[in-house]
Structures are given as structure tokens and as C-alpha cells.
Specification:
The protein is mainly beta. Helix content is about 0%, strand content about 50%. The protein is built from no helices and 11 strands. Strands 2, 4, 5, 6, 9, 10 and 11 form a 7-stranded mixed sheet that branches. The protein has a 4-stranded antiparallel sheet with strand order 1-3-8-7, with no helix packed on it. It is globular, with a radius of gyration of 13 Å.
Length: about 110
């Protein structure tokens, strides 16, 4: 199982970023996927999750109405569209497959002017 995140970077408050996670080594369409984040000095927290077919999603209260999780099973990809970013969204963002406890290495998002 391999999960590789990309798309992080520096963005100004109010801006947008789209994170991508490329999955391999398993039948992607069979598994729910999640995005987590860990800010400096804080515990890792769930940001968003999506069911195997993409029909069900859930979000942390802090990102509802700003972030959108999606997936394309034919491409083995899961995405996190982040809009109206705030400085408190600064963190390393991780792609996660709950079943089996598989993590990517993370991608850093910094929201700063």
C-alpha cells in the first residue's frame, strides 16, 4: 500500500489549494479514505473522510463549508479542495486509509501573508 500526497504549499489567507493523494498497491475502490492534518504542537486530527464509492462524506466542524473531499476511483486518486484558507489551517496534511492504518508521508500547507 502506498499513499503519496501532493499539492501543498504557501498560500495567502482567503486563498485556495487542492491536495491530491495517489493510491497504489490495493483495490482503491473498496476502501474509504480520509484526510488528516497535524499543526505544529498539536495532535493529528481528522479533516474529512469519504466512503469507498464517494457517496458519503464527513468533515471536521472547523472546515465544513470550506473544504471538499472527493475521489476518482478510476484514477486511484482522492482530493481535498480547500477554499477560504485561514492561518489556522496551516499543518501537514496526510492521506489515510483507515482499514489497515496506512498513512502517506504528508504535504505541508502554510497559510500566511
Amino acid at each position: 500500500v502506498q499513499l503519496v500526497e501532493s499539492g501543498g504549499g504557501l498560500v495567502q489567507p482567503g486563498g485556495s489549494l487542492r491536495l491530491s493523494c495517489a493510491a497504489s498497491g490495493f483495490t482503491f475502490s473498496n476502501y474509504g479514505m480520509s484526510w488528516y492534518r497535524q499543526a505544529p504542537g498539536k495532535e493529528r486530527e481528522l479533516v474529512a473522510a469519504i466512503s469507498s464509492a464517494g457517496g458519503s462524506t464527513n468533515y471536521a466542524d472547523s472546515v465544513k463549508d470550506r473544504f471538499t473531499i472527493s475521489r476518482v476511483n478510476t484514477k486511484n486518486m482522492v482530493y481535498l479542495q480547500m477554499n477560504r484558507l485561514k492561518p489556522e489551517d496551516t499543518a501537514v496534511y496526510y492521506c489515510y486509509r483507515p482499514l489497515g492504518n496506512y498513512w502517506g508521508k504528508g504535504t505541508l500547507v502554510t497559510v500566511s501573508s
